[in-house]
Amino acid sequence: MDFKGSDTVPGPRVEDQLPQTTTAAAKIVIVGGFGVGKTTMVGSVSEIKPLTTEETMTQAGIGVDDDFGSDTKTATTVAMDFGRIRITEQVVLYLFGTPGQERFWFLWNGLFEGALGAVVLVDARRLEVSYEVMGRLEEGGVPFVVAVNTFPDGPRYPLEDLRAALDLAPDVPIVECDARRRASSRDVLMTLMRFLHTLSLRGSLI
Question: For 156-197, what is the HEC assignment?
Fold first, then answer.
């Protein structure tokens, strides 16, 4: 059959191919409420072009969706964000950003399945949206760290005050970050990996 008139499917870009030195991979979820910076974090740290499922926010969402920050935010994730980063020559992390709007939370269970760990991204202006997130992770037995995204117009609080407000266990790491910056987002992922390593040494990581 002659397909000369058909569009050809391009092969993978060189920069998107998995390095030959890779010997291990892990699934990590980036989770949090609407507008906390999950898509931004995945995009800033991914070494491949990230896959996003953002759709324009419409009038139909009024009264249904969280509209915090809607003056500047015009799109919302409806399925997931996906990216990839190498943390060593051998180890690759696959990053899955979850949707923040409550009507898409039914997708969380599928995204949590098989995850080695999670980053709970927090906006200090709206700590209450993080409680459900952390509760879901605890129910699913997914270890997590908390990263407080520092917005330019947001308040800054001591991390130990935030730990108390979030009722975090003493051993759960909490750090500040700027999700727009690759180095800062990578530091958050390294904090998670160190935490997971500690749990494995304790025998607490299944």
Answer: CCCHHHHHHHHCCCCCCCEEEECCCCHHHHHHHHHHHHHHHH
CA 133/CA 102 separation, integer angstroms: 11
pTM: 0.77
Question: What are the pLDDT digits (tens) for 142-151?
Answer: 999 999 999 9
Helices (H), the chain: 38-45, 108-112, 129-140, 159-166, 182-202
pLDDT digits (tens, 9 = 90+) for 72-93: 544 544 457 899 999 888 889 9
Length of the chain: 206
Q: At a CB cut-off of 8 Å and minimum separation 6, what does 18 contact?
A: 92
Q: Which parts of the chain have pLDDT scores under 70? A: 1-19, 23, 53-79, 100-109, 206
Cβ-proximal residues to 67 (8 Å cutoff; 6+ apart), any chain: 61
C-beta neighbour count of 6 within 10 angstroms: 8
Amino acid at 63: G
Distance CA 152, CA 155 (A): 8
Q: 57, exposed or middle or buried, with CB in 10 Å at 0-12, 13-18, 19+?
A: middle
